[in-house]
């Protein structure tokens, strides 16, 4: 009995807003694992909570510099696709790809993988740009940031002989 893993406790509906505020605060404190846990608690109560969906994507991708991994990447994309707005889906999918590409650079992996990640991000940002509201230039700003990073790091597409990432 003492060796059993305790069961998760369910957040109350009344506590959702305060929990989201706390999760956002943990992200600002650079504690994405704590934030991710809180967003999961909120989603267990309100599975379509837009703020929690947006937040968990950001918390997961905040961890990409250390390691992205296929499972973490797939989870982030899955949460982004649950957002009700096609614009937000496209924008966050772009952000996921961009952060994954930056993670490749931070971990010293093949620049070809980073290049492909930035290009994928740019495609999502172009989709978001088509769906944006007037005055929302965020997808343009992110797109331009990717272009500058490609130029700054002299990134090029992978060659046929490029090795696969070890993650």
Structure description:
By secondary structure, the protein is mainly α. The protein folds into 2 domains: 12-63; 86-157. It contains 7 helices and no strands.
Topology:
Blueprint lengths: L15 H13 L3 H14 L4 H13 L7 H12 L4 H21 L4 H21 L6 H15 L15
Main attributes?
65% helix, mainly alpha, single chain, globular, 167 residues
The arrangement of helices and strands along the chain is: HHHHHHH
Biggest beta sheet summary: none
Helix content: 55-70%
How many DSSP H or I helices?
Answer: 7
Q: How many structurally independent domains?
A: 2
Mean pLDDT: 92
Query: What structural class do helix, strand and pairing data support?
Result: mainly alpha
Low-confidence stretches: none
Strand content: under 5%
* Global shape: globular
């Amino acid at each position: 009995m003492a060796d059993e893993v305790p069961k998760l406790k369910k957040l109350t509906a009344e506590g959702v807003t305060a929990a989201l505020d706390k999760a956002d605060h943990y992200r600002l404190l650079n504690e994405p694992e704590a934030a991710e846990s809180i967003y999961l608690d909120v989603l267990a109560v309100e599975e379509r909570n837009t703020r929690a969906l947006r937040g968990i994507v950001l918390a997961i991708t905040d961890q990409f510099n250390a390691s992205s991994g296929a499972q973490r990447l797939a989870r982030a994309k899955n949460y982004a696709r649950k957002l009700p707005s096609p614009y937000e889906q496209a924008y966050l999918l772009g952000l996921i790809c961009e952060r994954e590409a930056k993670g490749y650079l931070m971990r010293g992996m093949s620049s070809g993988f980073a290049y492909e990640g930035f290009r994928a991000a740019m495609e999502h940002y172009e989709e978001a740009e088509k769906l944006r509201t007037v005055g929302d230039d965020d997808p343009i700003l992110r797109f331009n940031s990717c272009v500058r990073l490609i130029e700054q790091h002299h990134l090029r597409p992978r060659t046929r002989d490029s090795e696969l990432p070890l993650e």
